[in-house]
Specification:
The protein is α/β, with parallel strands linked by helices and about 400 residues long. It has 13 helices and 13 strands. The strands form three sheets. A seven-stranded mixed sheet has the order 2-8-7-6-5-3-4, with helices on both faces. Strands 9-10-13-12 form a four-stranded antiparallel sheet, covered by helices on one side. Strands 1-11 form a two-stranded parallel sheet. Helix 8 links the parallel strand 6 and strand 7. Helix 3 runs parallel beside helix 10 and helix 11 packs parallel to helix 13.
Length: about 400
């Protein structure tokens, strides 16, 4: 009769440590991966070398500070006692209901706002359907739509990066099943007026209109006041930005209770991890710390950085979020220069390849960034002056 290991011991029968299996030795047989998936490219953000101990992270729009000590303590207590228990969401939903100003039946949690996007698109889109939005926007909308064999249509932002409301409306066709508005938009920082959103809701009452409010806490404006009169409105938010919980992956959707019931059919019952729930509840109950950071970034840091760019003659695009889109001279050189000086920023893809997006940090770090940026501009100036000096010597 085999012996039963005592609690706390590891049985070799359960963990055959001496045997390792390596995937990829044999060629993959024809497993008939869907053509839509096989033809896609993965969304792979530049995660390598993102070490906060080595770099100033200005590339992912994260909070410049970790959560307050109360959050860390509450998660630590939870991990020591309840990790082996499946998550329950009732307490957080109650607190979140008060924070958002809606009933609990109008809320559903998601594993980051990425899953919120996945839930909404899977609910409404099928093969051949269309999603209408202004581009460029958050890449996950196109990524998820592609897995469903749906098309993303819509106008491009003009050079001014103002929201092309009329052009978006003209994009809607009989195949459109969802309209998406990102407010403020990522990566352009463009804000969308309440009047434009109301017009979309009223013009297309039988189409769902998803408003992505990932940066709501920075923007200060929300479409949530429109929910009572517009049951086709859906709002998406996240705990990854102002509330500083990017690593724990938590978002939420706000919508008509009947629509939330449909979303529950798509999301798994335990998709949101319990540590994120504990942390989010504590953050909402103790808002002083993260609200201070928001005010500091928007009321102190951003005006000073904008003033710096104006003095240096660097083009920037106004935004009401914790990031800025700027057009420095020679983007490629700028990104590399910043990296060698310990700063990571995000170069943009076409049609914004002439810009970089940078996240705001606390004032001491931003002063350091402005110093580095000024040195970069001086380096460029010296390189352009050098040939003139050589010519004069000749």
């Amino acid at each position: 009769m085999p012996s039963t290991p005592f609690p706390g011991t590891i049985s070799n029968a359960c963990f055959p440590l001496e045997t390792k299996h390596t995937a990829g030795v044999l060629p993959l047989p024809d497993l008939r991966v869907r053509a839509a998936i096989a033809g896609m490219k993965p969304y792979l953000p530049p995660l390598d070398e993102r070490d906060p101990e080595q770099h100033m992270l200005m590339d992912f729009n994260e909070s410049p500070l970790p959560p307050q000590p109360e959050v860390i303590d509450s998660v630590s207590r939870f991990l020591s006692r309840r990790t082996h228990i499946y998550p329950a969401y009732g307490e957080l939903l109650h607190v979140l209901s008060n924070y958002a100003g809606v009933g609990e039946a109008s809320l559903i949690l998601s594993n980051g706002s990425d899953q919120g996007i996945d839930i909404v698109l899977r609910c409404f889109l099928e093969k051949g359907d269309e999603l209408a939005m202004v581009r460029p926007g958050f890449v996950m909308f196109e990524q998820v739509a592609s897995t469903l064999e749906a098309a993303v249509t819509g106008p491009q932002f003009p050079e001014s990066l103002e929201f092309p409301a009329r052009a978006l409306k003209e994009t809607v066709t009989s195949r459109t099943r969802l309209i998406v508005v990102i407010n403020p938009n990522n990566p352009t920082g463009t804000t969308v007026s309440q009047e434009v959103i109301v017009d979309l809701l009223q013009s297309f009452p039988k189409l769902p209109v998803l408003v992505d409010e990932a940066y709501f806490e920075f923007n200060g404006a929300s479409s949530i006041v429109l929910l009572d009169e517009h049951p086709n409105l859906i709002i998406l938010r996240t705990f990854s930005k102002a509330l500083a919980l990017s690593g724990l992956r938590l978002g939420y959707l706000i919508a008509h209770p009947d629509l939330i019931s449909e979303f529950h059919k798509i999301r798994g019952p335990y998709d949101v991890n319990a540590a994120a729930v504990v942390a989010a509840k504590t953050q909402l109950e103790n808002p002083h710390s993260w609200q201070f950071v928001v005010k500091h970034l928007m009321q102190e840091v951003k005006p000073e950085v904008e003033c710096f760019f104006e003095k240096k003659g660097v083009c920037y695009f106004p935004s009401r979020a914790n990031f800025m889109l700027i057009a420095p001279p020679d983007v490629e050189k700028a990104v590399e220069y910043f990296k060698t000086h310990g700063v990571l920023v995000r170069p943009m893809r076409p049609p914004l390849e002439h810009t970089i997006r940078l996240s705001l940090r606390m004032m001491p770090e931003m002063k350091r960034f402005m110093e580095i940026f000024g040195n970069y501009l001086n380096t460029l100036q010296k390189s352009t002056d050098a040939p003139k000096e050589d010519f004069q010597k000749a």
